[in-house]
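W.,

You were right to be curious about this one. When I first looked at the sequence I had no strong expectations either way, so I just let the prediction run and decided to look at it fresh. Below is the sequence, 736 residues in total, followed by the output.
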Amino acid sequence: MKKIILSIKGMSCSACSASLEKYLNKQEGILDATVNLVLAQASISYDESLTIDDLNRFVKEAGFESLGEFDFKKETNKHSRDKVFLIIYGIIAIFTLYVSMSSMLKLPSLPYLDMMKYPFNYGLTLLILAIVFIIYGLDIFKSGIKNIIHKSYNMDTLVSLGVTASFLYSLYSFYMVINGHHEYAHNLYFESCAIIIFFIKLGRFIDYHSKEKTKEALKELVQITPSMALLKTKDGEKEVTIDEVKKDDILICKPGMKVAVDGEITKGETHTDESFITGESIPTKKQTSDKVVAGSLNIDGYIEYKAVKIGRDSTISEIVRLVVEASNTKSHIQKVADKASSVFVPTIIIIAVLTFIGYLLLGHPFNEALISFVTVLVVACPCALGLATPLAIVVSEGVCAKNGLLVKSSEVLEQAHKIDTIVFDKTGTLTYGNLKISAINNYSDYQDRELLSLVYSIEDKVTHPISLAFTSYAKENKLTLQEVTKFKNIEGIGVSAKVNNKDIYLGNNKLFPKLKIKNDYEKEEEQLANTGSSIIYVIEDKKVIGLIGVNDILRDDAKYTITKLKKMGKEVIMLTGDNEITAQKIAKELNIDNVIANVLPQEKTKVIKQLMRNDKKVMMVGDGINDAPSLATADIGVSVNSGTDIAADSADIILINDNLEKIPALLSISQKTLRNIKQNLFWAFFYNICMIPIAIGLFKGFGISMNPMFAGLAMTFSSLTVVFNSLRLKRWKDSK
């Protein structure tokens, strides 16, 4: 299976995105397609039988244009020319309105264009002006006609039908004027055709720039990375473009410069500012072998670093890709809105036709029936309805990204506020995972250094945070690695291996029943556990030769986070494979009442499932590697310690800066996002509930009526209401 995100041109409303999505999903070889109106993208999963050319062809057949694979760096302001055209046509629109309405408003008529004195000149001028605007709006008509053919009606369908009907009737009236029936000059509606098209274009221009504001967080991320890099060569330094950098190139970064690509320091040390990705303003110390992230600012040192991840593989590119993909997923509430949009346009067409027929049956003049028909079609734009959910989601995704929260699905963002139970792993989650050896009980003939060398040789093959304690100790004490064979992981218990032809086991006290031997060191284990140490038994040929205590440090933000979550009414649980005594000690410091200790990874998953069976909405917070099954099982999985390996993470949400305080922030953003979406949907529906009856003419008896030109303007304002309400989410601030 392949996946691609295509940039799409020509979508103007939710009916457009819905029709394209429906058409793509019908095509053989496409496994799944999701279309995003706000980002103007189609996220497509397809099999090997199709090519990108096939996908572009499908988009074209549906009545739209594919601009190729999405590349945010190449996204520029393509609408500068549109602004010039809009100004020119705005001036022409004012002239058109003056010609058509000067006599009605008792303004001085232009020479030879008075409707009563020169009806032919008047009609011909408005006809020419209408044709000019029809040419300007050809894209609207093309889209409308194609969507009628494909039976996937959208806003362009409504406007095309309305304007065409008005234009043809005006053309007939002008024909009558030519034949001497000058009274038909009153039945010319060429100016309505022109002004409707102008307001549609104006609305789209404003809409485009409003949508661009929702992408600002992504733009900021993209613009963080520099366009040039300083390459180290045999002849010295050479400035090259970012595209010229190859993997394993050695690059130079001096104080005040930005790191060009993700890399690993080979020489020097410095402090870097990574606040753009972590949200933390405190500089981070970097030295040889440390990783640096593209876009981070070198504050005070000279470093040389090896290019590790370039182009699309970089951390920033990965974050942008995941945020875009999340914006392209559809939440439950958006699916409901899309379904409503799919039946909305056909319903409006039926209402408009019934309005037209009703007027004629009630004895109203043909031109009055036609105007009401056109007004209903134009005013009932599904734009606001289509923008209600995706705009709020895109803004919120950007807010999350700027606050160190990488949300992989819009549905997760919608559902997060419902979470009532939050389960935390201990090591590497509530603690930093920077473990240090706190005690060595040596029961062997080995020297402490020899014992630790033996343990280090085996732990070197392990990815668990506990292994870092031995790695750190080995570096400080310059221990050497011994040859290890037959290494095996014993899930939830420890590891085994052969060293010097002896069977070595490292792990917790669950090793004893597995090896069927007696544990004579329970008192010593309890003494170490009371100090808050995690315990590692060292067993050689079924004999205990060592008991090692490893201490960890609580995260600075752990206690605050737990306290805030409890204030929010959330149940907090600590779930750990560590022993009961150590777990209870940590829990007491953090004020966690519910502790489940001594559990294997698969048992963690069972605990999560049991909580969910008890109608709990569960969030699991873990390290993203050892807790992968639990993260995947929970309603929402949150990963810390993600480093730069974002793509490989199995969680729904990644804390980019490992800051636990962002969990309450996520719940707050989720709640405000859902509230914003509901407000948007209310105003979208409320607008149509109010405007359609007025357009039909139900309130003419009260002196309230509408014409097609006002309908076009009202339609634009309805979309702007939703846009500006969504943009309010950008003002979200974390309250502490």
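Here's what jumped out at me. The chain is about 50% helix and 20% strand. And, maybe more interesting for your project: The first strand starts at residue 2 and ends at 9.

Coffee later to discuss?

I.
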